[in-house]
Specification:
214 residues
């Protein structure tokens, strides 16, 4: 959010595809009317549907009126901003906020003032979490690739008698020639070694005897 001009923030909100899970009461009307004034696409449902509509990216939900355990299952694995609407700061509502991993919270009775603030905050937090998760995934893939390369180099040293520099150069040159990641070449070498070891073709190994059915 830092450095984003106000117009860009409002444009992001207007492009949002919002699901409102709230009873058709005065609070629900205030919420829906304010979102409509903003101009974003809204789907209002009550009660909680069996499945979530496709294409949504933000959910406003009245937590005391909704079976949050079911909603949590529907939200699992989906990249959505969640804003909880609560009546009381009770243990039940706090647990619901936690279980839904809510990015924003609004208290009833709802007023127009504050809805856009929580909307903005929730979408920013959700976007930040998504970017952070992407960085973690990329780091995990990098570490996994590094481990594969290290293992392949060790195999070339132990089995082929190569030096560490020569083993790494072999991997690098092959990856360049095939225009493929270094880790993919390493994985092929490891898989080939494991297959040969299983067949007893690597010194010091004995082939495994297939299991015979009785």
């Amino acid at each position: 959010m830092k450095g984003h001009p106000p117009r860009r923030i409002l444009d992001d909100l207007r492009r949002a595809r919002v699901l409102v899970i709230h009873p058709r009461d005065e609070d629900g009307k205030v919420l829906i009317d304010q979102l409509r004034r903003l101009g974003c696409a809204i789907t209002a449902v009550w009660p909680l549907p069996a499945t979530l509509p496709e294409g949504i990216d933000t959910v406003f939900v009245s937590v005391e009126d909704t079976p949050t355990d079911q909603l949590a299952r529907l939200l699992e694995g989906q990249n959505l901003a969640v804003i909880a609407v609560v009546t009381y700061e009770s243990p039940t509502s706090l647990r619901a906020i936690h279980d839904l991993n809510a990015h924003g919270v609004m208290s009833k009775p709802l007023r127009s003032l504050g809805i856009l603030t929580q909307f903005t905050l929730a979408r920013y937090r959700q976007g930040y979490e998504a970017r952070l998760a992407g960085k973690v995934t990329k780091l995990e893939e990098t570490l996994k690739g590094r481990r594969l390369v290290d293992r392949a180099i060790r195999l070339l040293i132990d089995v082929q008698g190569m030096s560490e520099d020569a083993a790494y150069k072999l991997l690098r040159d092959q990856a360049t020639a095939e225009r493929t990641p270094l880790a993919a070449i390493a994985e092929d070498i490891i898989a080939a070694h494991d297959t040969m070891a299983r067949l007893g073709l690597v010194r010091g190994t004995v082939p495994k005897t297939p299991n015979k059915s009785a």
